[in-house]
């Protein structure tokens, strides 16, 4: 006689508090890591620029990042973009990489501190959120708008505590870099969000390297003082900053709204200034610290789910 085994009712598994905590920590890890990696780029650039010109440094940075990314894409057999998508990738590269970093590096080269560079790029959330609202039809609720205004107020506090005399050209260059980053972010969200990160980023870095190299030769003659400080900063910028930070950024853009990703940039000024203080000896004023605190609080308000 066949044996009979009673079937047990299916149980609905509910995540424990430990599971929810693990998920929460995982969701926080990407933004925190992104802030650390992105903020370090301004300090690394400041360390490298005494040994070479801005365009030459970008040629080294983009060129090495392109080699690494394209190598990874070939080894892992990543899917390549469609022919019609290559133009979109080139536009993102010219805006987010070439225009953004060329302007920022020239500003650093002319004396802008790493903390102030991160501070001015910290204006990105307001511009990006407003641009996403107009161009991508992403909604802004009251809490998000309050967070954006609060973040902008924190940035204004830091700017107000910095001497402005003689720094007009540097600030104008940094503002131009901000414009390139915002436009590139919105364009990436609209036209390139579906592309593979390995091949898409590889194509972007290749386009960027060729574009800056075309000007680095005639303008700077590719003059390089090969010092350990330059080599270390170059490797950090190419591998950690160009590949790591931008991959995290594109990944977060895919997972959420562009405005949510952009609000993370309100934390970049404080982290950049802290790194500049530790590594470069740049001063931290009390008013600046207050501004960083206001910006951080604004991020919490804007990103809160409840």
Automatic annotation (TrEMBL):
Membrane topology recorded in Swiss-Prot or TrEMBL: Multi-pass membrane protein
Print the keywords alphabetically: Membrane, Transmembrane, Transmembrane helix
State which residue ranges cross the membrane.
21-43, 55-75, 87-108, 114-136, 145-162, 168-187, 199-219, 231-252, 264-280, 286-304
**Protein name according to UniProt:** DMT family transporter
One Pfam family name from the record? EamA
UniProt similarity note? Belongs to the EamA transporter family.
- Fetch the InterPro entries from UniProt: AA-Vitamin_Transporters, EamA_dom, EmrE-like
The cellular location(s) given in this protein's UniProt record come to: Membrane
- The primary location reported for this protein is membrane
Domain EamA: residue ranges: 32-159, 171-301
Q: Does the keyword Oxidoreductase apply?
A: no
User: What species is this protein from?
Assistant: Pelomonas dachongensis
